[in-house]
Amino acid sequence: MEQTKKRWDLKDTLVVLRLLVGWHFLYEGVIKLYNPDWTSFGYLASAQGPFESFFLWMSSESMIGIADWGNKIALIFVGLTLLLGVFERVGALVAIGLLALYYLAHPAFPWVTQLNVEGSYWFVNKNLIELVACILLFQMPTADRFGLKRLFNTKKEITKTELS
């Protein structure tokens, strides 16, 4: 009987992508949770582009607490779902929503002055790239390959060696 060597495939790469994105979200959420001085006020109040008024409303005194806690909870939720491989499609959808908001608050449009950003962008920035990665994670879930879903899966998968 000959053994077949398992090759690294697309699902394995997607597992790594899911873990990296999950770690990024979880870390960002935990850092914000444990920093009593953190607030999204500066980011929201300096928003630009076509949705500026919406983000200014979110930075208002009556909404900033909700925006801050919503951001922390959503970041931690996304991080845990993607890292643990449970409810990963829901986590990916929440991530897509958050990243869309981050992008729209400071869009990388050439006609918009770039404030509060780390680099110089032209339409595409890191938020948009991570958003597309999360769309891919939503379309191709990998918890059956690596995650709690696989651990608690009651259906046993039959491998080629078990058939022979």
UniProtKB/TrEMBL annotation:
Q: Which residues cross the membrane?
A: 73-102
- Give the membrane topology, semicolon-separated if more than one: Multi-pass membrane protein
Q: Where in the cell is it found?
A: Membrane
Q: Which organism's genome codes for this protein?
A: Pelagihabitans pacificus
Q: Where is the signal peptide?
A: none
* Pfam families assigned to the protein according to its UniProt record, in alphabetical order: DoxX
Recorded protein name is DoxX family protein
Q: Can you supply one Gene Ontology CC term for this chain's record?
A: membrane
Keyword entries, A-Z: Membrane, Transmembrane, Transmembrane helix
Q: Which InterPro entries match?
A: DoxX
